[in-house]
Amino acid sequence: MRTSCLTRKTNETEIAVALDLDGSGRHAIQTGVGFLDHMLASFAVHGLFDLDLRAAGDLHVDPHHTVEDAALVLGSAFDAALGDRAGIVRLGSASVPMDEALAFVAIDLSGRPYTVFTAAWSAPAVGGLPTSLVQHFMESFAVTARGTLHARVEVGRDDHHKAEALFKALARALDAATALDPRRAGIPSTKGSL
Q1: Residue 43 lies in a domain
Q2: Number of domains in the chain
Q3: Is residue 187 part of a domain?
Q4: Is 190 inside a domain boundary?
Q5: Which domain holds residue 36?
Q6: What CATH number has the domain bearing residue 173?
Q7: For residue range 93-136, what is the model confidence (pLDDT) as tens digits?
């Protein structure tokens, strides 16, 4: 079973994540940041990941630490659930439209963290979440998931639509990349390890 349960406790946040890569999209999300909860629910549903993510953070300061640490633990949960990554497809990409917005995400679960992110926002925040934290979430996730992530908003006017299209595209790309390829018995790399 490709599952993981992880926790992280600091002076700023306390995060708990339970993940099943081969789920059906069941989710229970509670971060204290309503818009982030909505994004992670969309992520679970569209990636068909069973996800339980609970976060308690210093929201009296701002959402930064909660968003960052949730992404770090979620990425670590993917890394743990993937194990040595034998038999996975490894690469995935998705374009997701949401009304006038279109987002693209490509991921390589290569073991090498890197992020390229391109998006223009209309406002400094959406639903109480600073729009700058969408990029920071993706970067933090890529570091601990140990993957190369390219994410961009191709077009769009509404920040809610742009952010949601990005999270759905990330989910669809990850669903493809984490899938098991029945033709592949070993590590998906010419090096023999990731």
Answers
A1: yes
A2: 1
A3: no
A4: no
A5: 3-178
A6: 3.30.230.40
A7: 999 999 999 999 999 999 999 999 999 999 999 999 999 999 99
pTM greater than the 0.70 cutoff: yes
Q: For residue 37, give both structure tokens.
A: 């909860």
Element (H, E) at 51: strand 50-57
CB atoms closer than 10 angstroms to residue 105:
25
CA 132, chain centre distance (Å): 15
Q: Which residues pair with 101 in a beta bridge?
A: 98
Q: Are strands 91-98 and 101-108 parallel, antiparallel or unpaired?
A: antiparallel
Coil, strand or helix: which one is 13? strand
Q: CA torsion sign, 172 to 50 to 163 to 148?
A: negative
3-state SS, 4-21, equals EEEEEECCCEEEEEEEEC
Does 29 map to a domain? yes
The pairing of strands 50-57 and 27-30 is parallel
In the chain, the amino acid numbered 138 is: M
